[in-house]
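Q: Could you fold this chain for me?
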Amino acid sequence: MSEGHAWAPQRAVFVRRSLILGAVTFVIFLALTLFVTMGIWHYLVISAVLTLILFMEDFIRWRQVRDERWQIVDGQLIHDGPDGRAAIPLSEITSVKRRLGNAVVIKLRSNQRIMMRYLAVPAQIVDHINTARPPGAP
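A: Sure. Below is the predicted structure, expressed as structure tokens.
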């Protein structure tokens, strides 16, 4: 059983993700605004403002999850977050999947989905949780 592993959101993952998504978003918005007949400065300002708005959403999400901690202890996935501690029995987990990028999605028998964000090694976390689940778990 994989006991004692602990995970937390990583600032470096957040920064890397934000920079990549910010650059891609800026280029997309810039390309879209080129269809509007304005001067080049308008294109740059509109693209920068829209990119900044999306970055702020991501930053707010980071502030909400940056202090979260996840660990496997005594057959449970323990989550310490801003709302306190939650213990999820590993037998209640029906699937654990890596989401595109740096997140892990955990699905429970109740069809509730829980997301672990900004992880440095999401594939390894999926493996650890799946290994820790009891044999014969869905």
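A (continued): The chain has three helices and seven strands.
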